[in-house]
Structures are given as structure tokens and as C-alpha cells.
Amino acid sequence: MSDRIDITLTINGERHDIRVEPRKTLADAIRDDCGWTGTHLGCEHGVCGACTVIVDGATVRSCLMFAVQADGASIRTVEGLAQGETLHPLQEAFIANHALQCGFCTPGFLMLAAGAIERNPRMSDAELIEVLSSNLCRCTGYENIVKAVRSAMNQMQA
Amino acid sequence: MKPAPFAYHRPTTLDEAVAMLAEVAPLEGRVIAGGQSLIPMMALRLAYPTHLVDINGIGELDRVAVEGGELVVGALARHVRFETPVEPGPTGRLLARVAHNIAHFPIRSRGTMCGSLANADPASEWCLAAVTLDARLVARSRSGTREIAARDYFLGIMMTTLEPEEILVEVRLPLLPADARAGFYEFSRRAGDFALASCLCAYTLEGGLIARAWLGVGGAEAHPRRIADAEAALVGQPAGEAAFRAAAEIAAAGIDPLEDANTNAAYRRDLVRTVVRRALEAASRDAGV
């Protein structure tokens, strides 16, 4: 009843033809079948946001989609942010503002912020805090994440 | 934390979808749209459908339109679409305020209004909006299409009159009058968490007095409900503190409160009193009138 299905995912521009069980989440397929392990899995039920990726332009939790639902989609993960050796402004800002400690939540926060800024490059402080309330970080107390994203947003507008 | 195995079906037309669902519904098959409630329940093994009929490939369901004084919302319209007003009147403004209270941005990018209505969580903001605004829900199965009035739709906690072989294809929300003022307020312990109580309301004024009123309470009972006695307490009164407090008292006294380990009946009534008053105050400040 749960025969495996052939699908194609394009992750950070690289095509992956894989065969998955329908119950495999997109997060597991990205990590286990396609080898992009930058995407982290925390809670596996949509609460923590560590697995946030961008699927065809939509910022989503990859543990709350089945891989078969992403057949044909173009997916961006944290590995797709840097251009070669040049880090994305968000990544630079996270370093400069000490916005990570253990780093487990960081890929999710980076993709959450990247997706939100693409949708609205001029978020107010209130809108930014509402967006960042989506994900959990157990180390930083969030203040430095807010500072980092604000700083990157200002730089990206300049 | 991994869902149990299931067979996956991805129809591209509604006819195909209802035919598939008719076959798999008796085997515990289910519809999936946004999946933002269903997939967590599957991950927690609270739900284990044997078949999923994925309606995301059915283009005709991805629509939001105003038709004959109603806002028609198809089964693939995602929450995020309502964050900016989908129509220029009070309904568009109200739904935009409501949408920002639904879970978080990535969940809103995927979850759908009709999916929330089908799931029927007691705290669902869209269920509250549907019942307060007198929505009609359109269900389709292999044997045809039927309409269900929102007031007849909810049966209990996550229970509705939708049949297993029916797909909720659209919801039709009557637009509020152009001069209506609308408000929404919910209380939850954390940003984006399930509301412990919520209120959605609207009213029109004639000669300085409230002429028509809509007032519903969510999160506090097994399903959201319009509170007719509270609406009656508003009509004929000036829109101000006295009437708002009277309506809030009636709503708080009139509910059959849900109770859990952290929320006893008295606390839930207190919350209802507060959210009703704050929603009415928000309506009195509604911009754009």
C-alpha cells in the first residue's frame, strides 16, 4: 500500500531523482536521500522551525510536507545562501551579532529570515518580531537574532 | 515521530479526487491540503490514515473571489493570502487581522482556510469567522454537491457534519456591510499558540446606536459559536463601554467552558469576558469606516 514513488527535487539548483515512501517528510528526503544535511530536524511536528526551507518561493517547515508533495519543486536550504566563499548578508550578520551559540536552530532561522525578507524587504520591528516568533532558539534569548536580521535587512536595502 | 505508512494519491481534477476519496474513505483514507494540522497528528501517531488524497494539484480550488456579496474561498487558498485584505471592505480588513493570529508565518504559507474548517479545532480562528459571519460551506462528493450552513456544521471538538467521502471545496462568507466596524481579539499563552479564548465581532450604527451586531466566541467551548444574547444586548445601544461590558458579561455567563489541567471554568469565563470586551473595543477603533 505504501509503494515507493519516484520524484525529482531540485535543491539549491542541483537535481535529485529519488525514490521515497509517501510517508517520508521533505526534511528527511533533503537530508537522507539528497545529502543536504544543513537542514536540521528538531521536533518533527512543526513546532521548532529548525527544518525551515523555501519551496517554490514559499517559506515552509519541511517536516510538515511529505517529499512526494514537493515533486518537481525548487527548494532552497541553508547551503544555498552563500555564493561560493561569500556568505549571505544574513550569515555575516549572525556572526557579527553573536546570533548563534550551539547553532542547531540557525539553519531554520536563516531560511525563515531569508524568506520573510524576500516577501517584505521593509518589515517593521513588530513585523520582524512576529516572523521570528515562528522558530525556537534555546541559547540566545532571541535578542541577538532580532538584531542580526535587522542589521542584514538594513544592509540588503542599502 | 515518523508518520505511519500510507498510500498517496494526487488527483489533478475534482472529479478524479472525489472518485478516489469515495474508494479510500471507507478504508480510513483522508484528504490532505495544507497538512499543517494533519501531518503533526500523523507524526505523533494520533492520526494514521491509510490513504491520503492530496488536493494540492487541483488548480480550480486555488481561488479567492467576491461573487454576489460573498467572499468565495477555495480549498487551496492559504492563510498567508489573507494577511493583506482580499477585498476593500470591513471583511477584508477583519480577515487580515485574524490571519496574523494563525500559528506562524511558515505555517500560514502552507495551511488553508478550508483545511482549518475541515479540521475544526475549537481554537481555530477561521472556524470562529465562519460561524460568526454566517458562512456557507460547500462539500463535494461523488454523489454531488451540498451546502452546509456554518451554524449547522460544527458538532463538537474536531467533529463536523462533513462526511468522510466529502471534500470541503469552498467556503462562502457573506461580506459585512460597507459601513460595519469589525474587531477580533484572542488570548494565548505564547505567540502563535492555540487561543484559550477569542472573539470576533462586528456592528453597524444607525443614528449613533448599534443597529446590527455579529458576535462569536471561539476557543472556549467545544466549537466556536455565535452568541445571540450578547448580540441582542448590543443592538439599540450606543457603541461604548456600557454596552460592551454588558455583552461581555452575557457571553462569559452563557458559555459551556472547556476545561483542562491549566484552565478551569472560572478562568475560561474570565478570559471570555475580556476577549469579548477587547474585540468590541477593537471594532470601535476599526479604521476605514
As for the CATH topology of the largest domain in chain A, it is Ubiquitin-like (UB roll)
The unreliable regions of chain A are none
| CATH level-1 class of the largest domain in chain A | Alpha Beta
Order of helices and strands of chain A: EEHEEEHHHH
Number of domains of chain B: 3
Structural class of chain A: alpha+beta
The CATH architecture designation of the largest domain in chain A is Roll
Would you tell me which CATH topology of the largest domain in chain B applies?
A: Uridine Diphospho-n-acetylenolpyruvylglucosamine Reductase, domain 3
Gross morphology of chain A is: globular
* Spatial ordering of strands, largest sheet of chain A: 2-1-5-3-4
Taking strands numbered 1, 2, ... along the chain, how are they ordered across the largest sheet of chain B?
A: 4-5-10-6-7
Largest sheet of chain A: 5 strands, mixed
The CATH homologous superfamily name of the largest domain in chain A equals Beta-grasp domain
By DSSP, the count of extended strands of chain B is 14
Written overview of the protein:
The complex is a heterodimer of chains A (158) and B (289). Chain A has 158 residues and is an alpha+beta fold. Chain A folds into two domains: 5-80, Ubiquitin-like (UB roll); 89-157, Orthogonal Bundle (DNA polymerase, domain 1), CATH 1.10.150. Chain A contains five helices and five strands; from the N terminus they run ββαβββαααα. Chain A has helices at residues 26-33, 89-96, 106-119, 125-132, 143-157; strands at 5-11, 14-20, 52-55, 58-61, 74-76. A five-stranded mixed β-sheet of chain A has the order 2-1-5-3-4, with helices on both faces. In chain A, β3 and β4 form a beta hairpin. The mean pLDDT of chain B is 97. In chain B, the strands form four sheets. In chain B, strands 4-5-10-6-7 form a five-stranded antiparallel β-sheet. A four-stranded antiparallel β-sheet of chain B has the order 11-12-13-14, sandwiched between helices. The termini of chain B are far apart. Chain B has three domains: 7-57, Uridine Diphospho-n-acetylenolpyruvylglucosamine Reductase, domain 2; 59-174, Uridine Diphospho-n-acetylenolpyruvylglucosamine Reductase, domain 3; 181-284, Enolase-like, domain 1 (2-Layer Sandwich). Chain B is globular and about 60 Å long. Chain B is an alpha+beta fold and 289 residues long. Chain A binds chain B through residues 1-3, 5, 21-23, 25, 28, 43-47, 49, 52, 58-61, 63-66, 68-69, 112, 115-116, 130-131, 133-135, and chain B through 1-8, 10, 35-36, 39-40, 42-44, 50-52, 54, 56, 100, 104-107, 109-110, 191-192.
